[in-house]
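Section 5: illustrative case.
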């Protein structure tokens, strides 16, 4: 069993435990173990099988998990999991993916109607059977139906980090082939989209075709969907991600890049423009319609140039005004990963992170940052062992002490403070006043009515101690819809009062998205891109946040991570 498979089994079990209404701390221990195991560099199965070694020496793996691991490695399952699977069929797990439906409701629905599939649940809602259950009403039925619709739309899509890593791996693998010169991701991944349907790779070089043969022999290929002269498609990995690899002539590489980068909407608009200019554009090149003469094909710059346009960054190619802006010379000069000097939302092992303050700082320094901020959870998030005022004060001291040990690098003291139901902060003002960075985040009561949620968040943006609104819409990609509130109104107040908004770079969130970013920018809001790291390796997710910022048309001046420490400090203090 691979670490990934073991981790998946543990998280599934945690999901089932949640449905069964089991103890929260025990559930968390399964979830933690899953994260630890997935990222462990050595094979967990090997360690477990080695009688001379003790798997509990790995941080995050206790006695209970260890015994589950032994059983799991031996026979592919373990007692707790078997018991749960007897009570709830495996299909119930899929119900957890429907936005708006929590584990308690699933248990109740299953307990009453024995319904465990999405289709059967949909029927229950349509027949208004859910209303007959305690605390469930017509509104919930409508919400679940919407959730199912969203789920179906998202089904078969993948979070960007999974696809990004697959792309990196495949690029390395295909570059082993002699006569292959360039391998480039195109499609939605190149555009920096938050979820990806399939991975598109373009290959060029004198022997590009050999790359297709090599590709279908990749050890992770589960199913070959097609293998021709210029294109091979296959499903790879445990998740069955589809990958399309296309062999392209170097002479038409630019045209192919443009075509296969998309988006479709952008391509259509660009082709319209070409036609109006007496030209035609396809994946082989830009041609004069009259005599078929190729005008440009080798590079994207040339093609855009012949169409009277500057090169347009892939993140902007959604036909949402980029062509008009390009014509007017008003394309933004997009922020870049290299402009980012800090990361200011991260957790340590004091709450639900995996590393110490010093380890996070070391990792930040290695990234070339000038500073980071430690922002552990506050007490309301008991599941994450959130900090109360006393522990937070101690941590502030600790942060100052550790920071002094670093040269040319500063650790700011912060906190990701829970926003209580009524919009008050979960930490007293006197303590907030001592922090350098206060991120305010909603982690509870996410289903309030729109008006109540708007009031709640208004109270937050009016709070003089708050610097940044954390993951502002609360969406979890492919899992949970944003909470409903009047975003424009909150953005307007935030802009006026100097509250910053976060671009949470965690691949499961990517919150704010492009549309919200563009709205907030017009309201004068400034942004902070943060990885929300719970592990040193999560700092690498910054690039996904930057991609989001670029999709939101943001320039370096809109993003506070580009500031040197002194200016950054001022920008996140409100006094
Ligand atoms: P995805 O895979 O759903 O995340 O999104 P994309 O944008 O990667 O879509 P995909 O993989 O179907 O196609 C890649 C690009 O190729 C797409 O952005 C535009 C181009 N393309 C593919 N098929 C067509 C087509 O039938 N018409 C046009 N105009 N463009 C296409
Ligand atoms: Ca694609
Ligand atoms: Ca594709
Ligand atoms: Zn958070």
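Designed sequence:
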């Amino acid at each position: 069993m691979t670490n990934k498979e073991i981790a998946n089994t543990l998280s599934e079990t945690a999901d089932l435990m949640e449905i069964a209404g089991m103890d929260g701390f025990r559930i968390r221990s399964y979830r933690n173990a899953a994260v630890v195991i997935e990222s462990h560099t050595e094979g967990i199965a090997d360690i477990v099988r080695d009688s001379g070694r003790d798997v509990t020496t790995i941080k995050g793996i206790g006695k209970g998990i260890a015994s589950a691991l032994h059983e799991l490695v031996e026979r592919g399952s373990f007692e707790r999991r078997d018991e749960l699977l007897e009570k709830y069929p495996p299909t119930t797990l899929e119900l957890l993916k429907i936005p708006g439906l929590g584990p308690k409701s699933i248990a109740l629905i299953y307990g009453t109607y024995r319904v465990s599939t999405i289709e059967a649940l949909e029927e229950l809602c349509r027949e208004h059977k859910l209303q007959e259950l305690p605390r469930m009403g017509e509104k919930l039925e409508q919400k679940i139906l919407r959730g199912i619709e969203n789920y179906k739309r998202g089904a078969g899509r993948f979070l960007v980090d999974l696809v990004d890593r697959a792309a990196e791996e495949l690029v390395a693998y295909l570059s082993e082939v002699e006569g292959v010169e360039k391998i480039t991701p195109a499609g939605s991944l190149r555009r920096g989209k938050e979820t990806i349907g399939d991975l598109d790779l373009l290959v060029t070089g004198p022997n590009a075709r050999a790359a297709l043969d090599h590709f279908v022999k990749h050890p992770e290929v589960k199913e070959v969907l097609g293998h021709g002269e210029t294109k091979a498609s296959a499903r790879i990995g445990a998740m069955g991600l589809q990958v399309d690899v296309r062999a392209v002539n170097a002479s038409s590489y630019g045209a192919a890049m443009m075509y296969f980068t998309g988006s479709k909407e952008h391509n259509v608009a660009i082709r319209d423009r070409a036609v109006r200019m007496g030209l035609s554009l396809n994946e082989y090149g830009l041609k004069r319609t009259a005599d078929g003469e190729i005008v440009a094909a080798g590079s994207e710059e040339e093609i855009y140039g012949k169409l009277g346009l500057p090169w347009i960054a892939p993140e902007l190619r959604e036909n949402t005004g980029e062509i008009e802006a390009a014509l007017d010379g008003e394309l933004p000069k997009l922020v870049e990963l290299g402009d980012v000097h800090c990361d200011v939302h991260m957790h340590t092992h004091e709450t639900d992170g995996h590393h110490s303050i010093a380890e996070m700082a070391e990792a930040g320094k290695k990234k070339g940052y000038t500073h980071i901020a430690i922002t552990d959870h506050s007490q309301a998030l008991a599941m994450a062992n959130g900090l109360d005022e006393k522990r937070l004060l101690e941590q502030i001291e600790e942060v100052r002490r550790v920071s002094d040990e670093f040269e040319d690098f500063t650790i700011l003291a912060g906190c990701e403070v829970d926003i209580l139901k009524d919009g008050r902060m979960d930490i007293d003002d006197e303590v907030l006043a001592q922090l350098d960075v206060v991120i305010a985040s909603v982690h509870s009561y996410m289903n309030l009515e729109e008006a109540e949620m708007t009031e709640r968040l208004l109270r937050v943006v009016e709070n003089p101690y708050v610097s940044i609104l954390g993951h502002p819409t609360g969406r979890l990609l492919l899992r949970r819809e944003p909470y409903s509130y009047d975003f424009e109104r909150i953005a307007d107040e935030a802009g006026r009062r100097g509250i910053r908004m976060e671009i949470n770079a965690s691949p499961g969130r990517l919150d704010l998205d492009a549309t919200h970013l563009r709205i907030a920018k017009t309201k004068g809001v400034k942004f902070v891109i943060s990885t929300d790291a719970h592990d040193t390796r999560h700092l690498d997710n910054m690039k996904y946040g930057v991609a989001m910022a670029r999709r939101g048309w943001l320039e370096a001046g809109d993003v506070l991570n580009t500031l040197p420490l002194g200016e950054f400090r001022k920008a996140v203090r409100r006094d």
